[in-house]
C-alpha cells in the first residue's frame, strides 16, 4: 500500500471514530433527556397550566355553587409496568366549589416489588386553571409489593368562576386522567434504559397499601 492510500485509510478511520462518538453522545443525551422530562414537564405544566394541568395551590373549596359538573375518571398503564390501575368509581356529579374525593386502585400483578410514578391532566384543557387538587398521588414514587393492592386518593374542587368564563361556561363534563409508568430506578434494574420514553422520572417516597 503506498503512502497516499495509507493516509486515506487513516483519515477514514478517524472520521468513522468521530462519527461513532457523535452518535453515541447523541443517544446518551436523548436517554438522559427522556429520564429528565417528567420533572421538567411537571414544572412547566404547573407554572403555565399547559395541557390541562390543574392548580395545586392548596386553596380551600369555597362551598357548593349552583352549577353541577360531571367528573369522569380515566386511567392508563404503560406496558412496561405490570400493574392493574383503574378508577375505583364511575362518573361523579359535583357542584362547583364543593370538594370531591375520588380513588384510583392499583394492583401489582408481578411476583416482585415494583415502583411506579403517575402523571395527570384534565380535559378539556381549558378547564385546567379552574380545577384545584388538594390531595393527589401524582409525581410521587409509589411502590407495591408482589400482589399488593392500594387505593390512592384524590381530592379536588372546581372553581365556580368556570361558569363565568366564555371559554368554559358551556362545559358540563370534565375528565381527570392518570397514567402510571415505571420510575427511573425500576427502568435501570429492568434494563429498560435503552428504550426509556419520556414517562421516566422519580419523585417522593412510596405510599402505603395493604397486601
Automatic annotation (TrEMBL):
UniProt cross-references to InterPro entries, sorted A to Z? CtaG/Cox11_dom_sf, Cyt_c_oxidase_assmbl_CtaG
List the stretches on the Periplasmic face of the membrane. 38-211
Its main subcellular localisation, reduced to a broad class, is: membrane
Q: Is-annotated flag, keyword Magnesium?
A: no
An example of a Gene Ontology cellular component annotation for this protein is:
plasma membrane
Enumerate the Cytoplasmic topological stretches: 1-14
Question: What Pfam family does this protein match (any one)?
Answer: CtaG_Cox11
UniProt keywords, alphabetically: Cell inner membrane, Cell membrane, Copper, Membrane, Signal-anchor, Transmembrane, Transmembrane helix
* SUPFAM superfamilies linked: Ctag/Cox11 (SSF110111)
The highest taxon in the source lineage is Bacteria
| Entry's Gene Ontology molecular function annotations | copper ion binding
**Which residue ranges does UniProt annotate as crossing the membrane?**
21-41
Q: Where in the cell is it found?
A: Cell inner membrane
Q: Does the keyword Mitochondrion apply?
A: no
Q: Which GO terms describe its biological process?
A: respiratory chain complex IV assembly
Per the record, membrane topology reads: Single-pass type II membrane protein
Q: Which Gene3D superfamilies match?
A: Ctag/Cox11
Outline what the protein does.
Answer: Exerts its effect at some terminal stage of cytochrome c oxidase synthesis, probably by being involved in the insertion of the copper B into subunit I.
Name the family the entry cites. Belongs to the COX11/CtaG family.
What is the designated name of this protein? Cytochrome c oxidase assembly protein CtaG
Q: Which organism is it from?
A: uncultured Acetobacteraceae bacterium
